[in-house]
Amino acid sequence: MATDTTTQSYRQPTKQSRTRTRLQGDSSIYVTIFVALIAVGLTLGPIIYLALGGFRSNGQLAADPTGLPDPWVWQNYWNILTQGNFWEYTLNSLIVAVATTAGVVLFGTMAAYPLARYAFKGREGIFIIFTAGLMFPLTVAIFPLFLLLNDLGWVGGYWGLIVPQIAFALPVTVIIMRPFLAALPDELEEAAFMDGLTRVGFFYRMVLPLAKPGMVTVGVLAFLGSWNAYLLPLVILTGREAPTTLPLGVTQFQGQNAADFAGIMAYTFLAMIPALVFFLMMERRIVDGLSGAVKG
Fold this sequence. Notes:
The protein has helices spanning about 1-55, 60-65, 75-80, 85-115, 125-130, 140-150, 160-180, 185-195, 200-210, 210-225, 230-235, 245-255, 260-295. By secondary structure, the chain is mainly alpha-helical. The chain is globular, with a radius of gyration of 27 Å.
């Protein structure tokens, strides 16, 4: 009997502790949901405000800045979409973003491959140099870069914008891709060499398909960074014949229509749509790629 009483006395605190742990877990879930809702509101709030503001008139914005459209004014978006400049700027941004993404994915993967798969003297030093590139701000290099590109004759053209964007995106690309490539089994490489593949052939025929999740991740980051770039295009794309990207087009529209607040909001929202759609389409692959990099 004494033993049973002792056993029950030890069981009772265990049940209470489990109940207390469950309550604490439930409360932490509620706190997490609450914080997530606040984060979503802070993220989507400005975007929704821009979208709705484009459907209002300037008089509505002046009378009630936070109100809903009443009536809905579709003319703001229609005027922008029927302008040839908007589609020209969109095409220029698309050309630059696609070329930058292709260069970042290809050259970044090629740079990360030997740093991940081969042991040679100075390997970690080279990787540290890439890592240090994350701490090198664009604002410090913008004017020396302009002088260099001007000497090369690239100022005012696509290449003067594409090549620097690739260079500035390489550090984060190498850091993300290195764990992916290092996680590939050595047996796969040995089997490929036994079948007669060279190192270059192994890279293009085996490494690139297997590293596709990481390549998608760095590609999306490079595309979004290029699409939203403002400072570098502002400095490099100078001259009458220079192409204009969409962020620069937004600034030009604001300067030409300073009093048209509703039109500015509509133009800004339309400029955000391609990047938003692209990001939402690739969101799951970005998460999968980053989680794979962490595991590696």
